[in-house]
Design brief:
Blueprint (H helix, E strand, L loop, with lengths): L5 E12 L2 E13 L4 E4 L7 H8 L7 E6 L2 E2 L5 H11 E4 L11 H11 L4 H14 L15 H12 L6 E5 L7 H18 L2 E5 L3 H4 L4 E6 L2 E4 L2
Parallel strand pairs: 3-8, 3-9, 6-7, 7-8
Antiparallel strand pairs: 1-2, 1-4, 4-5, 9-10
The protein binds adenosine-5'-diphosphate and magnesium ion.
The site of magnesium ion has 3 residues, from helix 1.
């Protein structure tokens, strides 16, 4: 039996707004398996980012359990939680959030060095990832010198630099023109297929979503499969 790369069990999350509880997740059950890419398609304000933050151990659920690579996470002390997040989870956001004063290569090297690799090993892997992303000529460029699509490809390379089990992407092509979005998306899908990574991608782009393994939505605080 394959262990899900990510599993949410009865996950609840509410915020308080003007003193009133605002329930976003009401008991979400969800499993994401290695090599799967899942599109999360839901209107703004329904809780996609909240779900990704909880799944990615950036926010704690109020109740329920998040399993990452089979590990329950709710009782982990913060340092272990952070360690698990760094080694098993990669994030990509709508805006690249690359460090502007570092080169593309260095942006991919840094998380690996934080993870304990030597500069030389980290540099080798960063070079391979840049090649894979079609950016072998861009390693020495700093993010402001790159196009939007190139920036997002570097951000994806950075997110997977430590070979995580799970890639979480929050509207990663939301800021790109359709052709560039297509290209960034193809790279992401190819990476999932080649590495057995599991990806959960919030998107409003139904064309891109149709090319993923599964499509889900958030409705009334629960995840349901589409189609
Ligand atoms: P989406 O990503 O689908 O647009 P979000 O997860 O960002 O949705 O937000 C879901 C709802 O939760 C929204 O109504 C938003 O205003 C609210 N919300 C998000 N973060 C917070 C917070 N830190 N405090 C209070 N309300 C929040
Ligand atoms: Mg959002």
């Amino acid at each position: 039996m394959t262990i899900p790369a990510l599993a949410l069990h009865q996950v609840e999350r509410a915020y308080r707004q003007a003193g009133e509880p605002l329930v976003i997740l009401r008991g979400v059950d969800f499993e994401l398996f290695p090599g799967q890419s899942v599109a999360l398609i839901a209107p703004s304000g329904t809780g996609k980012s909240t779900l990704l933050h909880v799944a990615g151990l950036l926010e704690k659920p109020d109740a329920g359990e998040v399993f990452v690579a089979g590990h329950p996470t709710s009782r982990l002390p913060d340092p272990e939680r952070t360690g698990l997040r760094r080694s098993e989870i990669g994030f990509v956001y709508q805006f690249h959030h690359l460090l502007p004063e570092f080169s593309a290569l260095e942006n991919i090297v840094l998380p690996q060095m934080i993870g304990g690799l030597s500069r030389r090993e980290a540099g080798r892997r960063a070079g391979e990832l840049l090649d894979y992303m079609g950016l072998s000529q861009r390693g020495s460029h700093r993010p402001p010198e790159l196009s939007g699509g190139e920036q997002q490809r570097v951000a994806i390379a950075r997110a997977v630099a430590n070979s995580p089990s799970v890639l979480l992407a929050d509207e990663p092509t939301g800021n790109l023109d359709p052709r560039t979005a297509d290209n960034v998306f193809d790279v992401l899908n190819a990476l999932v297929r080649a590495t057995g990574l599991a990806a959960l991608v919030a998107t409003h782009n139904l064309d891109l979503a149709s090319r993923m393994s599964r499509r889900v939505t958030l409705r009334d605080g629960l995840i349901t499969e589409l189609e």
